[in-house]
Amino acid sequence: MLSPDQIVEMSEAIAVLLGIGITWAVYQGSEHAELPGEALTPPPGEADDARPDTRGRTL
């Protein structure tokens, strides 16, 4: 059986690893994101896309 100190230490380690994993998941692939000012301006006579291209975008 685990002592209370071991449970606290294990919980802290799991929380740290979970935080690192979430941070990696959010920022993974963000170098391909479309940044403000980099988007192409479509010609004025062209209709808007019904399904915009969302590849490479982050949260």
* SS-derived structural category: mainly alpha
For the largest beta-sheet, the strand count, sense and barrel status come to: none
Q: Output mean pLDDT.
A: 83
Q: What is the general shape?
A: rod-shaped
- Termini separation (Å)? 42 Å
Roughly how many Å is the radius of gyration?
22 Å
Number of strands: 0
Q: Please give the count of helices.
A: 1
Estimate percent helicity.
Answer: 40-55%
Element-level helix/strand string:
H
Spans of at least 5 consecutive residues whose pLDDT stays below 50 are none
* Residue share in β-strands: under 5%
3D structure, described in words:
- The protein is mainly alpha-helical and 59 residues long.
- It is 41% helix and 0% strand.
- It has one helix and no strands.
- It is rod-shaped, with a radius of gyration of 22 Å.
- The two termini are 42 Å apart.
